[in-house]
Write a structure and sequence with these properties.
four-stranded antiparallel β-sheet, N-terminal domain of MutM-like DNA repair proteins, DNA-binding, globular, 270 residues, 2 domains, Helicase, Ruva Protein, domain 3
DNA sequence: CCATATACCTGGCAGC
DNA sequence: TGCTGCCAGGTATATG
């Protein structure tokens, strides 16, 4: 489900409401991708300072350590004053003085990991290799160009890997490449400076627009306050196999790259 | 170091 | 209706 826009929309939907709360209990369900890293009871009494985002990870800052939350493919968070009955796919309840943060994740590719700090080894193992934030000032054109020059893989796969720039997942990689007129199969190192300039702009634009639309609700994504996203309605290529390109009416093509589907317009993208 | 394949897990859907 | 196979928003890890 979640790429940068969905994770950011989720963050915005509960960060202010949980900030300043004290942890009353932490209950974990079935095993997630990685173990929590300490006994859940050890977090009782901790204060929640706030919630940040790094790539597709949420960082819940405590007065002692940080909780890294990843939504995997099918995860979503809900934050409410009271929680009803726990369902079979609810695998974390963080009960606080200001509400209950619940992780719903049918496939359990998500994770909740406690680390002593963002710089500690358990956190760095997950965050240390991540590329630059696309919506921040650090996403510089010249550095982006230099990084791409070193990659021989297809540009779509370079974007997905998250080592150059973070947050661009399978939906927004296809969308950004359509917006910049680049064929997803082109090797990153072969892209000219003008094309990289277009791509750089497209990545920022598509992610920012998606955040503004509340993300993409393809199957079941909702923010932590239960709101749907609407960006999928204006997708140019993702999930539109065989449908007419919104620009030239040519049927959209779907191919596989690295075991993931890629969508593109064979006329608009060269 | 780089590029690619694999594994993790469940649900929904197309096709028979 | 029920079965089977395939597909799905991610990413650490293994392999070449």
């Amino acid at each position: 489900m979640p790429e940068l826009p969905e994770v950011e929309v989720t963050r915005q939907s509960f960060a202010d409401r949980i900030a300043g709360a004290r942890v009353l209990a932490l209950r974990m369900g079935k095993p997630l991708r990685w173990p929590l890293g300490l006994q859940p009871e050890a977090l009782v009494g901790r204060f929640v300072w706030g919630v940040r985002r790094r790539g597709k990870y949420l960082l819940i800052d405590l007065d002692e350590g940080v909780l890294l939350v990843h939504l995997g493919m099918s995860g979503s968070l809900n934050f409410a004053l009271t929680q009803g009955q726990r369902g079979p796919h609810d695998h974390m309840d963080l009960e606080t003085t200001q509400g209950v943060l619940r992780l719903h994740d049918p496939r359990r590719f998500g994770a909740v990991v406690w680390a002593p700090s963002e710089q500690s080894p358990p956190a760095q193992k997950l965050l240390g290799h991540l590329g630059v934030e696309p919506l921040g000032d650090a996403f510089e054109l010249s550095a982006f160009q230099a990084e791409l020059k070193r990659k021989n893989a297809p540009i779509k796969q370079v974007l997905l890997a998250g080592q150059v720039v973070v947050g661009v997942g399978n939906i927004y990689a296809s969308e950004a490449l359509f917006l910049s007129g680049i064929r997803p199969t082109v090797k990153a190192a072969q892209l000219s400076k003008p094309r990289i300039t277009k791509l750089h702009t497209a990545i920022r634009d598509v992610l920012a627009r998606a955040v503004a639309k509340g993300g993409s609700s393809l199957r079941d994504f909702v923010s932590a306050e239960g709101k749907n996203g609407y960006f999928q309605l204006e997708a140019s290529v993702y999930g539109r196999t065989g449908q007419p390109c919104r620009n030239c009416a040519t049927p959209i093509k779907q191919i596989m790259q690295g075991q993931r589907s890629t969508f593109f317009c064979p006329v608009c993208q060269k």
